[in-house]
Amino acid sequence: MDKQSALQQMIDESGRIVFFGGAGVSTESGIPDFRSVDGLYHQKYDYPPETIISHSFFVENPEAFYKFYKEKMLCLDASPNAAHRKLSELEACGKLSAVITQNIDGFHQAAGSKRVLELHGSIHRNFCMRCGKFYDAAYVRDAAGIPRCSCGGMVKPDVVLYEESLDSDTLQQSVELIAGADMLIVGGTSLAVYPAAGLLRYYRGGKLVVINKSPTPMDQSADLLISGKIGEVLGAVSCR
Ligand SMILES: [Zn+2]
């Protein structure tokens, strides 16, 4: 049996699939991958991206943070791809319990997914640091320089920056979903980013599928390892 057929058979036999995804899921939508060879690390800025998107840099240099953030992270023109759409379809047909993502672009929800756990937050939620008022992504994009609230406070994206901790409820729910999954599909992530690899250890089933273009630390543990583009592989799956 070829790998695509093996994947389909596993999906056919499952009803509590959890998908765990990373940057690679969105690169096919044109969103740059922070850690890939042609990703942000190789572009020219005054500071390396991992410095700019840290909490201390945000506090000390909000202007430079927002310049980078708006140019490189606030990708409001891109749209979901075949992977996002298929995951939404799998949820709608009762196969998939949830998507757990390391991405902040909101594409899973845009594609129709209902249960999405965003480990690193979302560009679509922004809050005044003084009064807590909500602002959408377009407000941040359209602000000249640092986005300000009507109260004068600075508006901060609900995105987990380096040095910041992940939301504990989101982490706990992710653990429970993974532990209760009858199939776990891991896609588009090198699993290099905390807490990805640690979370996946909670899976106890026998259908761990890894779909990635490059090797991951989970490859040895995978029941099915598919080297390829996530949009093409998932796109070919059917919901039957
Ligand atoms: Zn305010």
TrEMBL record:
<keyword id="KW-0479">Metal-binding</keyword>
<dbReference type="GO" id="GO:0008270">
    <property type="term" value="F:zinc ion binding"/>
</dbReference>
<feature type="binding site">
    <location>
        <position position="212"/>
    </location>
    <ligand>
        <name>NAD(+)</name>
    </ligand>
</feature>
<dbReference type="InterPro" id="IPR050134">
    <property type="entry name" value="NAD-dep_sirtuin_deacylases"/>
</dbReference>
<feature type="binding site">
    <location>
        <position position="34"/>
    </location>
    <ligand>
        <name>NAD(+)</name>
    </ligand>
</feature>
<feature type="active site" description="Proton acceptor">
    <location>
        <position position="120"/>
    </location>
</feature>
<keyword id="KW-0963">Cytoplasm</keyword>
<feature type="binding site">
    <location>
        <position position="128"/>
    </location>
    <ligand>
        <name>Zn(2+)</name>
    </ligand>
</feature>
<dbReference type="InterPro" id="IPR003000">
    <property type="entry name" value="Sirtuin"/>
</dbReference>
<feature type="binding site">
    <location>
        <position position="102"/>
    </location>
    <ligand>
        <name>NAD(+)</name>
    </ligand>
</feature>
<dbReference type="Pfam" id="PF02146">
    <property type="entry name" value="SIR2"/>
</dbReference>
<feature type="binding site">
    <location>
        <position position="35"/>
    </location>
    <ligand>
        <name>NAD(+)</name>
    </ligand>
</feature>
<feature type="binding site">
    <location>
        <position position="104"/>
    </location>
    <ligand>
        <name>NAD(+)</name>
    </ligand>
</feature>
<dbReference type="GO" id="GO:0017136">
    <property type="term" value="F:histone deacetylase activity, NAD-dependent"/>
</dbReference>
<comment type="similarity">
    <text>Belongs to the sirtuin family. Class U subfamily.</text>
</comment>
<feature type="binding site">
    <location>
        <position position="151"/>
    </location>
    <ligand>
        <name>Zn(2+)</name>
    </ligand>
</feature>
<feature type="binding site">
    <location>
        <position position="27"/>
    </location>
    <ligand>
        <name>NAD(+)</name>
    </ligand>
</feature>
<dbReference type="InterPro" id="IPR029035">
    <property type="entry name" value="DHS-like_NAD/FAD-binding_dom"/>
</dbReference>
<feature type="domain" description="Deacetylase sirtuin-type">
    <location>
        <begin position="1"/>
        <end position="240"/>
    </location>
</feature>
<dbReference type="InterPro" id="IPR026590">
    <property type="entry name" value="Ssirtuin_cat_dom"/>
</dbReference>
<dbReference type="GO" id="GO:0070403">
    <property type="term" value="F:NAD+ binding"/>
</dbReference>
<feature type="binding site">
    <location>
        <position position="34"/>
    </location>
    <ligand>
        <name>nicotinamide</name>
    </ligand>
</feature>
<feature type="binding site">
    <location>
        <position position="230"/>
    </location>
    <ligand>
        <name>NAD(+)</name>
    </ligand>
</feature>
<feature type="binding site">
    <location>
        <position position="120"/>
    </location>
    <ligand>
        <name>NAD(+)</name>
    </ligand>
</feature>
<feature type="binding site">
    <location>
        <position position="104"/>
    </location>
    <ligand>
        <name>nicotinamide</name>
    </ligand>
</feature>
<feature type="binding site">
    <location>
        <position position="189"/>
    </location>
    <ligand>
        <name>NAD(+)</name>
    </ligand>
</feature>
<feature type="binding site">
    <location>
        <position position="149"/>
    </location>
    <ligand>
        <name>Zn(2+)</name>
    </ligand>
</feature>
<keyword id="KW-0862">Zinc</keyword>
<dbReference type="InterPro" id="IPR028628">
    <property type="entry name" value="Sirtuin_class_U"/>
</dbReference>
<feature type="binding site">
    <location>
        <position position="131"/>
    </location>
    <ligand>
        <name>Zn(2+)</name>
    </ligand>
</feature>
<dbReference type="InterPro" id="IPR026591">
    <property type="entry name" value="Sirtuin_cat_small_dom_sf"/>
</dbReference>
<keyword id="KW-0520">NAD</keyword>
<feature type="binding site">
    <location>
        <position position="190"/>
    </location>
    <ligand>
        <name>NAD(+)</name>
    </ligand>
</feature>
<keyword id="KW-0808">Transferase</keyword>
<dbReference type="GO" id="GO:0005737">
    <property type="term" value="C:cytoplasm"/>
</dbReference>
<feature type="binding site">
    <location>
        <position position="105"/>
    </location>
    <ligand>
        <name>nicotinamide</name>
    </ligand>
</feature>
<feature type="binding site">
    <location>
        <position position="23"/>
    </location>
    <ligand>
        <name>NAD(+)</name>
    </ligand>
</feature>
<comment type="function">
    <text>NAD-dependent protein deacetylase which modulates the activities of several enzymes which are inactive in their acetylated form.</text>
</comment>
<feature type="binding site">
    <location>
        <position position="105"/>
    </location>
    <ligand>
        <name>NAD(+)</name>
    </ligand>
</feature>
<protein>
    <recommendedName>
        <fullName>NAD-dependent protein deacetylase</fullName>
        <ecNumber>2.3.1.286</ecNumber>
    </recommendedName>
</protein>
